[in-house]
Design brief:
Elements: H1 5-14, E1 25-26, E2 40-41, H2 47-62, E3 67-71, E4 75-76, H3 83-94, E5 98-106, H4 110-113, E6 126-127, E7 136-140, H5 141-149, H6 165-175, E8 179-190, H7 194-197, H8 205-224, H9 228-236, E9 240-242, E10 248-250
Parallel strand pairs: 1-2, 5-8
Antiparallel strand pairs: 3-7, 4-8, 5-7, 6-8, 9-10
Helix pairs in contact: 6-9
């Protein structure tokens, strides 16, 4: 089973977050009972992106916080780690120009799907990684506002199942020259496919992967062209930027 939302909520409170600062979002599904701590509930399941869109729009419109710690129930937080302290230390160094800092991972499909993000206590640390897994990450308001302006990542409602949110979030950051990192010294256990394994998913793992992958491909092909992956990689390499009008430019042509 995925990590209980209530367990995550209580862990964050123990780490020092005020209860009123923790938004526990229920997606309206009837697969799991709603935790008592829930303070943001959707009337029915509008899938992952819809859930994130609603919650982040609420936060950006009604609160002036500059940083948000986003956690999915696919992640297990370790009792011996104070995640509030860890991410606050990052802010001291990177507050000026960061987009997100994502935690390192172990467990699940980490070795095959996110090997560059693997928790590495010996010699681990900050790294710029393409195609990371956003299980636990601190995101800046600056980057979220950019994404909202261009209907990207969490604000791209065509990515209903969530695949591609990570890539487009990073793409927007790279275009606006905002730094993004993975902290491979900060461990989070990745509970891969745990909902499917418990028999509570709406569809099989194979069906979900096929549908999510197809949805992402179609969305990005329509939005960025058939070479969208090359475009994303080019931005990751630092060759592209976004100008004030929203046009993509080659960095060497910037005036």
């Amino acid at each position: 089973m995925p990590e209980s939302s209530a367990v995550l909520f209580e862990k964050l409170v123990r780490d020092g977050f005020a209860k009123e600062d923790v938004l526990l979002v229920d997606n309206g599904s009837d697969k799991f009972p709603m935790p008592d701590q829930t303070n943001f509930k959707l009337p029915y399941n509008i899938r992952f992106t819809g859930q994130a869109y609603m919650a982040l729009t609420y936060l950006l419109d009604f609160f002036d916080d500059q940083n948000y710690l986003l956690i999915t129930t696919s992640g297990r937080l370790l009792d011996e780690i104070n995640y509030k302290e860890k991410f606050e230390k990052h802010l001291i160094t990177h507050a000026e120009n960061y987009g997100f800092i994502s935690a390192g991972l172990f467990g699940g499909l980490t070795p095959s799907n996110a090997p560059d993000q693997m928790f590495a206590p010996q010699g681990g640390g900050l790294a710029k990684v393409y195609r990371y897994q956003p299980i636990v990450m601190m995101v800046s308001r600056k980057l979220l506002e950019v994404c909202r302006r261009y209907s990207a990542a969490y604000f791209n409602l065509k990515l209903k199942r969530g695949w591609g949110i990570d890539r487009e979030l990073q793409f927007m950051a790279n275009l606006t020259e905002i730094n993004c990192y993975v902290d491979r010294s900060l461990p989070v256990e990745w509970l891969t496919n745990s909902t499917h394994a418990s028999g509570r998913a709406d569809e099989s793992t194979k069906s979900y992967w096929q549908a999510a992958g197809s949805e992402m491909e179609k969305c990005f092909e329509l939005k960025y062209g058939s070479d969208w992956e090359k475009l994303f990689l080019k931005a990751f390499a630092g060759d592209l930027i976004l100008n004030s009008s929203g046009d993509i430019l080659n960095k060497e042509c910037e005036i």
